[in-house]
Every structure is written in structure tokens, then in C-alpha cells.
Design a protein that fits this description.
The mean pLDDT is 96. By secondary structure, this protein is of the alpha/beta class. The strands form 2 sheets. A 6-stranded parallel beta sheet has the order 3-2-1-7-8-9, with helices on both faces. Strands 5-4-6 form a 3-stranded antiparallel beta sheet. The site of 2'-O-acetyl adenosine-5-diphosphoribose has 25 residues, from helix 1.
């Protein structure tokens, strides 16, 4: 386990951290990608072909996220507590498009795959907060044209967001902890390999073994709500 006091901890979170909040993961059985055609709902060409279908897909997910059914869980709360109470630096990079880290109290979360509660003008690239539905015939508040609004989500074939910042954070951390991600989507899946080049200690927390488990120094196996809460208490007790 951790036998040093980390100066800078980077967490990479994936859908597994939000599973116990009632949000479906992508690749588990009955996950989102089992029930939807990825290229129809999560690609620029799918959006060009059928904006109504794509907006409906993200409108439903946004409505669920903002409903009374979905709340941050103990794992999100534990990370927020660590950010507030730890003497070193704590960075959260998430692949999740939900806002549950922020709802739990975390600040400055890096959303590399975008955010459900934001939309973007296709023409200017300006990002705006949007808590209601987006319809294909909505007028964009930025350019005032109809049809120019898209979800601020990274689709297949698009480049993840904030990669310059992410590279800096990865290069400066001495502890890297991945939580609830299957390691099947790049570049996030190779962050563990990048940090290891600097001798950074790496931990994977997941309910089961993943394709990339062998790349990590240590493993915490179990539901995020349990293993992350315990991990955070362990880190806070390091002298
Ligand atoms: P996946 O659905 O690929 O993987 C979810 C992971 O969470 C799996 O490894 C599960 O074993 C694990 N898991 C499930 N429940 C858990 C729990 N309670 N506690 C801990 N772990 C649990 O989701 P991601 O790896 O996040 O991108 O997927 C990466 C990207 O693929 C997503 O951001 C999304 C998707 O295409 C975009 O939409 C751009």
C-alpha cells in the first residue's frame, strides 16, 4: 500500500464511480452502449444525420442526472473531503459527463469528455450552461442561428478536452489512482503508463479486474463507495 506521503495525487474517475448513484456505466451488462448504437448517438456524423435522436439521448440523460433520483455517493464525497482536508495537492480528472463530483463539493474537476449540463455553439465554440432540454430547432443564444447548438460532449472521433492541463497534472503527480474505469478508451487508458515513466505509484480501484489491471502497482477490489471511502481515510492518516 502507500508507504510515503504523496505531494500530488491525481485521480482518474470513470463511470464506475457514479454507478452506485444510479447512473448506467457504458460497457457493463445492460450498460448504455449495449442499448444504443454508439455511432448514431455519440459521433459527429450521427449528429449530422439525426440531431433529433442525439438531442433526445442527451436530454434524457441530463433529465435523469438532474432528477431527485440521482445524488453523489460516498465515493464522490470522500474525494471532495480529501480535496478539502489533505495537505498536498489533489486533482480530479474525470471521463464522466455527470456533475456528481461538483455536487459532492469538489472543485476544479477536469472533465475530459465534456459535461451534460453544458452545450456548445457549433460555429463559435462558445460553451454555455444548459440545465433544460436542447431541441434541434432551438436558436443558439450565441450566434442566434437555429440548429447550431450541440451537447458539450466529446464524441467518438473527437479529441478529448483539456489535454494540455491533463498532461501537466500527470507529469507532476507522485500518486495516480484510477477509479471505476474499464481502461478501454484512449487516451485515458494510457495515463497509467505515462505516469509510470516518472516513477509515480499507481492504484486501480474497480469492482473487478480490467484489461489494464496489470499496469497498476496496487489494486483495490470492491464497490467504489466502500473502497474509496477507506482509501481516503488511509491517505488522510498518513503522517
Ligand atoms: P465503462 O462502462 O467502460 O467501465 C465502467 C467500469 O466501472 C468497469 O470497469 C466496471 O467494472 C466498473 N464498475 C462498475 N460498477 C462499479 C462500482 N460500483 N465501483 C467501482 N467500479 C465499478 O466506463 P468508462 O471506463 O468510464 O466516453 O468509459 C470510458 C468512456 O467510454 C466514457 O467516458 C464514455 C464511453 O464511451 C464518452 O462518452 C466520450
Amino acid at each position: 500500500m502507500i508507504d510515503f506521503k504523496p505531494k500530488h495525487i491525481v485521480f482518474l474517475t470513470g463511470a464506475g464511480i457514479s454507478a452506485e448513484s444510479g447512473i448506467k456505466t457504458f460497457r457493463d451488462s445492460n450498460g448504455l452502449w449495449e442499448n444504443h448504437d454508439i455511432l448514431e448517438v455519440a459521433s459527429p456524423s450521427g449528429f449530422d444525420r439525426n440531431p433529433e435522436l442525439v438531442h433526445r439521448f442527451y436530454n434524457l440523460r441530463r433529465t435523469q442526472l438532474l432528477s431527485d433520483e440521482v445524488h453523489p455517493n460516498e465515493a464522490h464525497k470522500a474525494l471532495a473531503k480529501l480535496q478539502k482536508e489533505y495537505s498536498g495537492k489533489v486533482t480530479i480528472i474525470t471521463q464522466n459527463v455527470d456533475n456528481l463530483h461538483e455536487e459532492a463539493g469538489s472543485e476544479d474537476v477536469i472533465h475530459m469528455h465534456g459535461e451534460l449540463i453544458k452545450m456548445r455553439c457549433k460555429e463559435s465554440g462558445k460553451v454555455l450552461t444548459k440545465k433544460g432540454d436542447i431541441q434541434p430547432d432551438d436558436k443558439c443564444p450565441c450566434c442566434l442561428k437555429v440548429g447550431n447548438l450541440r451537447p458539450n460532449i466529446v464524441w467518438f472521433g473527437e479529441y478529448p478536452m483539456h489535454m494540455d492541463r491533463i498532461e501537466k497534472e500527470l507529469n507532476s503527480c507522485d500518486l495516480f489512482i484510477s477509479i471505476g474505469t474499464s481502461g478501454q478508451v484512449y487516451p485515458a487508458a494510457m495515463f497509467v503508463n505515462l505516469v509510470k515513466l516518472n516513477g509515480t505509484y499507481t492504484i486501480e480501484a474497480n469492482i473487478e479486474e480490467t484489461n489494464v489491471s496489470d499496469n497498476f502497482d496496487d489494486h483495490l477490489v470492491g464497490p467504489a463507495t466502500q473502497v474509496v471511502s477507506k482509501l481516503v481515510e488511509d491517505i488522510l492518516s498518513i503522517k
